Amino acid sequence: MPKDTITPADEQQIMAAIKEAEMLTSGEIRVHIESNCEIDVLDRATEVFAELHMHQTEQRNGVLFYVALEDHQFAVLGDAGINASVPDHFWEDITAEVISYFKKKKYAAGLARGIRMAGEQLQAHFPYNRHEDTNELSDDVSFGD
């Protein structure tokens, strides 16, 4: 079970990183953690993206960090608005950084680092405007089975 691996302190670390990143960008970041991924990791991340209603942000600028702990699967997925704006290596760089932490079993630290990287990079394309920005998606970590 993901809750056996991700402690409440880990959740707090991840949520703090989301809040920090979202102070730089209007982009909306979610993290979903589950045990297993029965299908291709990007296909599953796409399903979770839809289940969490992440495609409903005004600027289509949602980002999902998807983790299947037991199957050692990870994907970071951005909505259409982001993919149209960011450079080709954007997701690959974040993925490589996060996985480097995961290999050391530092899941929360890896996710926090990737989330901060996403916020810093998205700032150029989707800057935060405190007068106009609303938090459209929950900052809570969502868990599957």
From TrEMBL:
<dbReference type="InterPro" id="IPR007621">
    <property type="entry name" value="TPM_dom"/>
</dbReference>
<feature type="domain" description="TPM">
    <location>
        <begin position="4"/>
        <end position="120"/>
    </location>
</feature>
<protein>
    <submittedName>
        <fullName>TLP18.3, Psb32 and MOLO-1 founding protein of phosphatase</fullName>
    </submittedName>
</protein>
<dbReference type="Pfam" id="PF04536">
    <property type="entry name" value="TPM_phosphatase"/>
</dbReference>
